[in-house]
User: Which sequence fits this backbone?
């Protein structure tokens, strides 16, 4: 592979990644809109935001869905961050417990 | 809203989240396969894995794509985790620098 071929291959890969990232941002926002609906239900019923059993179910779902190449532990760490950010959003927007 | 209606609303929201999460796991793996291709090109050309300018471009792309309700800083923190996990994967799989 020449340097120019390598550069072209990297450019094509990066365009692909940018497209995947945009779809991921759209999904994250879709997820957060559902989380806001959950927050609204919980706030109206005076239910707690944090439910450890539900979080276990979320992790079980993503691990079952993960066919690799990303290792389960990596997917789990990524979702820990996602869930943490969404919990903060749910707390600040809905004023729920 | 009755307790039963609240439970049913939460159940429906959670089904929706589980579906979104499965699509997200698929996208993360799609992204990691492209990252592996990048790693292979870089390894063959003896190029470094870490390129700060490219990471800036990744963040610029996701912030531009983010229409909310997730705040930019939250999306950025989520992608910091994603990029960090993928950099580790790229290093371990490809043996690149």
Assistant:
């Amino acid at each position: 592979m020449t340097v120019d071929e390598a550069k072209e291959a990297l450019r094509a890969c990066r365009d692909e990644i940018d497209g995947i990232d945009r779809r991921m941002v759209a999904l994250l926002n879709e997820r957060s809109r559902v989380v806001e609906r959950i927050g609204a239900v919980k706030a109206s019923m005076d239910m707690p935001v944090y439910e450890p059993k539900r979080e276990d179910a979320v992790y079980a779902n993503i691990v079952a869905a993960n066919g690799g190449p990303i290792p389960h532990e990596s997917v789990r760490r990524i979702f820990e961050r996602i869930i943490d950010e969404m919990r903060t959003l749910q707390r600040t927007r809905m004023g729920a417990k």
